[in-house]
Amino acid sequence: MKPIKISVLDLAVITQGGTAATALERTVDLARFTETLGYERFWLAEHHNMANIASAATAVLIGHVAGATSTIRVGSGGIMLPNHSPLVIAEQFGTLETLYPGRIDLGLGRAPGTDQLTAAALRRHLGNGLYDFKAHIEELEGYFTNSSPDTRVRAFPAEGLSVPFWILGSSTDSAYLAAEMGLPYAFASHFAPAQFLTAIEIYRQRFQPSVHLAKPYVMACVNVVAAPTDEEAKFLASSVYQMFLGIIRNNRRGLQPPVEDIDEVWEPHEAAAVKQMTAYSFVGGPEKLAAQFDNFLKVTKLDEIMVTTNLYDQEARKRSYALLKDILVP
């Protein structure tokens, strides 16, 4: 298998019996550990009104993680741009880039990352149901590229700084936009697998070279649970499946400990729904994962893989990232 860049997606998930403080400690610990392994980037995701996730103030957490590390790129996976003024995001990420030059990424999504009532509380003025994602990205980009002192509204310290933009997607919609704007494309196949292959094909076929990229660049996020044996990996992965089960049941508890028999936890229709959501999950020992990833990379031809591993035990979680690194970047 040809070596490939690997990165991390983290949501600062709160474990059962834990707190936001302990979740953030786990996030920093994981960032430091994956940095020592040579992972490319460490992204945090914006979610709101979710009691089991501590990454709502995403830009603040990015700064905290960047300050606790020294080489790994840190960014958003993503900032949900409809929730924010582009000016505010330019100021935040201009500040982050000033503090941690050459290490900040700005992944942008068009979804609210929450329910509609909470979205309204975030001051999203979308009463007519229309939202121009492209226009907001162009406005945001303009704050970084502006060089005219006559511009009435300017973003400091963003002006003149280079923060890489990424378009995030969980359907085909953003594939068209990423291709049109010539930006790198990151797909959330870890929870939205249905349109993954179609979306990356659209992106590659329609890609237009830009000042950002000369050719398409695709990253996909997948769930991974690696362990010394297939049996242990299957056991540990039951925590991941319980987390997705909580989404289906609208009962988002803290991340649960693993269970011996997941079939005692869910109903058959729930199991089918969870397995559909987590179709791009890689669970097993090194030999099984190597075979799975070899086939996956041949089919998708990805430029980079982003991994999310939500395990109850932090040491098992870190071990999973270490084993995966040895598989993908021997």
The biggest beta sheet is recorded as:
8 strands, parallel, barrel
Count of domain modules? 2
Give the helices and strands as they follow along the chain. EHEHEHEHHEHEHEHHEHEH
Task: Provide the CATH topology of the largest domain.
Answer: TIM Barrel
How would you describe what is shown here?
The protein is an alpha/beta fold and 330 residues long. It has two domains: 5-224 and 286-307, TIM Barrel, CATH 3.20.20; 225-285 and 308-330, no CATH class. It is built from eleven helices and nine strands. The chain has helices at 20-37, 58-68, 86-99, 116-121, 133-145, 173-181, 196-206, 230-249, 268-277, 286-300, 314-328, and strands at 5-10, 41-44, 73-80, 104-109, 165-169, 185-187, 218-226, 281-284, 304-308. The chain has an eight-stranded parallel β-barrel, surrounded by seven helices. Helix 6 (173-181) links the parallel strand 5 and strand 6. Helix 1 runs parallel beside helix 11 (314-328). The chain is globular. The mean pLDDT is 95.
